[in-house]
Write a structure and sequence with these properties.
By secondary structure, the chain is an alpha/beta fold. It is built from 11 helices and 19 strands. The longest helix is centred in the middle third of the chain and has 18 residues. It starts with 5 loop residues before the first strand and ends in an 8-residue tail after the last strand. The protein binds pyridoxal-5'-phosphate. It comes from Herbiconiux aconitum.
């Protein structure tokens, strides 16, 4: 069977969202393309064309893939284990975020071995106790970083933090985290460092404004049309997931559907089998809640989702095998949105878009010629 499910990436929407963030950040936009660009694939050239000035990812591997694809813009990698290949990052001119003395020394050693200075962003924990150096370790981290600068192995080019509650602009924690970040930057300068970029805000902090005034904005979700703060209507969703009917059948009232037989048809109806399931990233928690769009109408998915299949109740409509079904999309034609899927599964949109599995083919749709490398 050919690939019957497709994830269409709307590059136009990503470019429009990028241009929007470039404008609201005063062209201080780091496009966050971690996790395969939140599941959207090869879109680095699109976001750079549309106004992003640098790129952020988690691992050095992700950064090197972008370099190998020809990306020349600055790239920051902010999450690496102590034994990561920092030497390769330094040679590829990938900036490295550092949140501990152990990481700082590992980066410094790797840089000395390859004979090139590492470009480092020191990362301070402003409140969520996840990544970043605890504030009581910050002054020492800055001090040792300055010593490594004097020895020639690193240069501190940035200071970063990440906010915990920016999707709730009234939360008192926001003001606290802004103060902690401002103090951390001041401490870094007092210790003799001269970071040329600082960055605190991600999508929510940018849209609500609680992270403004701190230099570069690291934007991920927003580029893909996701607004964690629920405060804007300027963004366009950038994915459509479609599939095709495999087979159909008519069932009598009282017929049960799927594992556990927990859906029972209350009337004579038609079912269509779709070749996509939780193994392709659709959350099983949305079983017996979600809809799909069939022939321009919303129709309910019935029974528990299987790994590879789901069943849709098409009512009186007899669908032909091969007919197209929209699982989600921007919503302009009545199809469910990623936001609705997130609601059906009690999760956030980020989880829906990053989980679409590798059996689903990817298609990039754009009005301008695309760089496929
Ligand atoms: C994922 C991530 C971002 C991007 O966050 P969005 O809310 O998706 O814009 C920014 N900074 C860090 C440290 C991240 O891990």
């Amino acid at each position: 069977m050919p690939s019957t499910s497709e994830l269409v990436v709307h590059d136009d929407a990503i470019r429009a969202n990028t241009a929007y963030f470039a404008s609201v950040t005063g062209n201080q936009l780091m496009a966050v393309l971690k996790a395969d660009a939140f599941g959207h694939g090869a879109i680095a050239q699109s976001v750079l064309d549309a106004g992003a000035t640098s790129i952020g990812v988690t691992s050095i591997d992700e950064a090197l893939k972008l370099r190998n694809a020809g990306v020349r813009a600055p790239i920051l990698s902010w999450l690496n284990a102590i034994d990561a290949d920092f030497g390769a990052a330094v040679q590829a001119e990938v900036d490295i975020a550092v949140s501990s003395l152990a990481l700082l020394h590992a980066v410094g050693r790797a840089a000395s071995l390859v004979g090139q200075r590492a470009r480092v962003h020191l990362h301070v924990d402003v409140g969520m106790a996840r990544d970043g150096a605890p504030t009581d370790a910050w002054a020492t981290l800055c001090h040792i970083a300055r010593e490594l600068e004097a020895l020639g192995s690193v240069r501190v080019v940035g200071v970063m933090g990440h906010m915990s509650c920016a999707d709730r602009p009234d939360h008192p924690q926001n003001q606290r985290e802004r103060l902690i970040f401002a103090n951390a930057v001041r401490t870094a300068r007092r210790r003799g460092l001269a970071p040329s970029v600082t960055h605190l805000a991600a999508t929510a902090a940018t849209l609500t404004g609680v992270g403004s005034g701190f230099g570069v904005h690291r934007i991920g979700a927003g580029l893909f049309g996701i607004d964690p703060s629920g405060t804007t209507d300027h963004l366009r969703p950038a994915l459509s997931l479609t599939t095709h009917v495999v087979t159909t059948r008519e069932i009598a009232a009282g017929t049960s559907v799927g594992y556990g037989l927990d859906h029972v048809a209350d009337r004579r109806t038609n079912l269509a089998l779709l070749p996509i399931g939780y193994g392709d990233g659709l959350p099983r928690a949305a079983s017996n809640r979600a809809d799909v769009l069939v022939r321009g109408r919303r129709r309910p998915l019935v029974g528990r989702f299987s790994m590879d299949m789901m069943v849709v109740d098409t009512g009186d409509d007899r669908i032909a095998p091969g007919e197209s079904v929209t699982v989600f999309g921007p919503g302009a034609h009545g199809e469910p949105t990623v936001a609705e899927w997130a609601g059906w599964a009690d999760t956030i949109e980020h989880e829906i878009v990053t989980r679409v599995g590798m059996r689903v083919g990817r298609i990039h749709r754009t009005k301008t010629p695309e760089n496929h490398r």
